[in-house]
Amino acid sequence: MSWANDHDASLDVLQQVQGTLTVSLIMVPRQDLSTCVQDESAAQIKARNENQYSFFPVVDRHNRVLGLYNAERWFEDEAPDLPIADDFVRLSEDIVIGADASIFDFVMQADEHQTNLVVSGNQIAGLVSLSDLQKLPVRAALFALITSLEMAMVVAIQRRWPQLEDWISFLSDGRKDMLLSEIGEAKAHDGFVSEIAFTQFSDKADILRKGKLLAPSSAELRKRFKRIRVLRDSVAHANNYAATPTTAKQVCETVRWIYEIKAELLKLV
């Protein structure tokens, strides 16, 4: 079996791994949630919101969840002394997600719907929000996703340009010399697997971009691959890739780009 075919199988395995990383792993369980009721005022909720929770589930007298109240808008401004009965988002499909949904089902839309109530069976089981992108299961999911993208890049390159001389021409002279040196040394020490195995993420991105194998323009692909590489490095070496709402929203956009690029690559192979 060729190295590329091995990676075809590995792509399937990584897809299965991603499916096991579900929203239930990052949600705040229902018993740990701070809630509010309809006859509370915005001012009352702000006064007791010492932990600066952005959203509160709204419950009735039977502790049934009715929807979500946005408390974040009053963090800097004075909150009105009016009941929130008509000032919260009612329970609907727009604000719920399944506990067994993939983490990426949430990430893909978390910049637009920053907080979701998590449903398990016929009950609300918890809450997941944009800030939860910092949690370790998300970090593991992101690493698996970016790895699967790089594998798809390898397969696409090898299918389109089977020989070393076919794809190495897209790299700079400096990168060519370095790669050929590393390949030669590996062969001399019985450590050779495949020429493409010695390329870095940026090399593969340059090959695909200069080889015009993907639909977006060269400038757009350069921007997207740079963002993906930065996210990969942050996920691998640090845990601040989504430390602020701005960076967390960038993660959501980057994940959508990864899925788009990966889908286009897999169509080619």
Automatic annotation (TrEMBL):
- Determine the domain of life of the protein's source: Bacteria
InterPro entries, alphabetized: CBS_dom_sf
Q: What is this protein called?
A: CBS domain-containing protein
